[in-house]
Amino acid sequence: MSRSKIKVTLVVFFDWKSIVHHEFVPRGQMINKQLYQEVLARLRNAVRRKGPELWENQTWMLHHDKAPAHASLHIRSYLGKLSPSRLFPVSQT
User: Fold this and answer.
1) CB-based contact 46:21 (threshold 8 Å)
2) Domains identified in the chain, total number
3) Which string of DSSP letters, residue by residue, matches 32-80?
4) At CA 65, angle to CA 59 and CA 69, rounded to 5?
5) Which of residues 69 and 29 earns the better pLDDT score?
6) What is each CA distance from 30 to 35, 68, 70, in whole angstroms?
7) Could you tell me if 47 and 31 are in contact, meaning their C-beta atoms sit under 8 angstroms apart?
8) Cβ distance 35 to 69 under 8 Å?
9) pLDDT tier for residue 74 given thresholds of 50, 70 and 90
């Protein structure tokens, strides 16, 4: 058996019950602020679709670290422009 020479990045968002959203980053692409914003938009749709009770009750929270793509001014502006109580109540560590 030979070891795979293809490296893949997987972005995963989950809650205590299951995976809410996941996607593979295209080969050779880094997770930058533009890609992260696109992923967040798809996450928003996934939460609305898969967790309607959480969406309606506004009882979910996005928790992410201080990775450069997460903490960029671009992403903070994006999250701030959208109604935080309806989109992404954010907790950072």
Assistant:
1) yes
2) 1
3) -HHHHHHHHHHHHHHHHHH-HHHHHHT---EEE---HHHH-HHHHHHHH
4) 110
5) 29
6) 8, 11, 13
7) no
8) yes
9) confident
At residue 38 the predicted structure's pLDDT band, cuts being 50, 70 and 90, is very high
Under the banding of pLDDT at 50, 70 and 90, the label for residue 86 is very low
**Does any domain span residue 50?**
yes
Residues 6+ apart with CB under 8 A from 4: none
Q: What average pLDDT score do residues 13-31 get?
A: 86
**Of the candidates 67, 65, 69, which has an alpha carbon nearest to the alpha carbon of residue 32?**
69
Q: Quickly tell me which residue has 């795979």 as its tokens.
A: 4
List the structure tokens of 32: 């930058």
Tokens of 17: 């019950």
pTM for the whole structure? 0.71
